[in-house]
Design a protein that fits this description.
The protein is α/β, with parallel strands linked by helices. It has 8 helices and 21 strands. It has an 8-stranded mixed β-sheet with strand order 9-6-5-4-3-1-20-21. Strands 10-11-14-15-16-17-18 form a 7-stranded mixed β-sheet, covered by helices on one side. It has a two-stranded parallel sheet with strand order 2-19. The structure holds zinc ion (ZN) (2 copies).
């Protein structure tokens, strides 16, 4: 046995003894509540500063901006900017960004959470307008693979992403199609398709999707979210949340380890949910120690207030998002006067 093998064995022995000693300590700590989710640190990279600014949602909180049934948000992580979704009308995001003095020309990457029109209609306008200042602006789009799956109907193809892909690629842009999650930058995770562990039914359309086994109900299998691993906990950014916020949170916790949720930002598609579903959703989000909720788009007014109440949050920490509202590591939730 050489020196190297002996050293390795010794290390293994030390690690083994260390593990045996640490197990009872961990068990005791958990039993007596010494180690909560807040203390459990992920070994994965963390972001330092972050800010999520809403650029498309229903409510406008100031004299600036246009409200619509749609969603878009700008993510700024330690100076690295990524746009998430592009709104429902071709020019909403470009106009709102202009009114809010948000410069998108330096943003190279775009994430599309899913194929729906209220999230993808601004893609070409934004790409063409921003290219005038920077040819690399929005030149890369991340999405999950079923975003291009056919959604046939009596009136023809319902998935506008199929035609949009060709037009976008003709501008020199390229898609990065994900079949599973990917860390886009350290501490920023694109979930990819989200396992539907719980039977959340957070979509209202009754369309069909073409799969290898034929036409089936379209549960928007590509629906993806973005999760930040911040020092205060996880921050989940959803588009429409069709995968279900509890499924999303469960998947995020599995990826990052036992960490609390510092914030949920975006659409949760709970506006049509029953009282029972809202109560269940709140009880699960409470288990994740959800500390902030900036409820945009399809979350719903009643749903937001139910979640606020049942999560024990308040008018600072659970608020309906407005165009221009934000959630940041420095200031938490900031909204316009209408949403206060
Ligand atoms: Zn949708
Ligand atoms: Zn939507």
């Amino acid at each position: 046995m050489g020196q190297k093998a002996v050293t390795t064995m010794t290390r293994k022995t030390i690690i083994a003894w260390g593990s045996w000693i640490s197990i009872p300590i961990t068990v005791l700590a958990l039993a007596f509540g010494f180690l909560g989710k807040a203390e459990a640190q992920s070994s994965r990279p963390q972001v330092q500063g972050f800010k999520v600014t809403i650029l498309s949602t229903m409510l406008v909180g100031d004299t600036n901006g246009i409200g619509e049934w749609g969603f878009a948000a700008l993510l700024d992580v330690d100076g690295h900017k990524i746009l998430i979704d592009t709104g429902a009308h071709p020019d909403t995001v470009i106009r709102n960004a202009h009114d809010l003095h948000v410069d998108l020309s330096g943003v190279q990457e775009l994430i599309l959470t899913h194929n729906h029109w209220d999230h993808v209609s601004g893609v070409l306008t934004l790409r063409r307008e921003l290219m005038k200042e920077n040819r690399n602006a929005l030149s890369v789009i991340h999405a999950s693979e079923d975003i291009f799956s056919s959604r046939p109907s009596e009136n023809g193809e319902r998935n506008q992403m199929i035609a949009l892909r060709k037009e976008y690629e003709a501008t020199g842009g390229r898609f990065v199609v994900h079949s599973s999650g990917a860390e886009l930058i350290p501490g920023v995770w694109f979930t990819g398709p989200i396992p539907r562990i719980y039977p959340e039914h957070n979509w209202t359309s009754s369309g069909k999707i073409l799969t290898a086994s034929g036409l089936v109900e379209d549960n928007i299998p590509e629906d993806s979210s973005v999760v930040l691993n911040s020092s205060k906990g996880l921050v989940i950014i959803t588009g429409c949340g069709h995968a279900g916020i509890v499924n999303i949170a469960t998947y995020a916790e599995k990826h990052f380890g036992n960490r609390p949720i510092y914030g949920v930002v975006g659409g949760l598609h709970l506006f049509a949910s029953t009282d029972e579903v809202l109560a269940w959703t709140a009880s699960k989000l409470r288990e994740f120690q959800t500390a902030n909720l900036l409820a945009a788009h399809c979350t719903g007014v009643e749903a937001t207030f139910r979640l606020r109440e049942e999560l024990g949050l308040n008018r600072k920490t659970a608020v309906i998002a407005t165009v221009g509202s934000s959630f940041s590591s420095a200031s938490g939730i900031e909204v316009g006067p209408l949403a206060k």
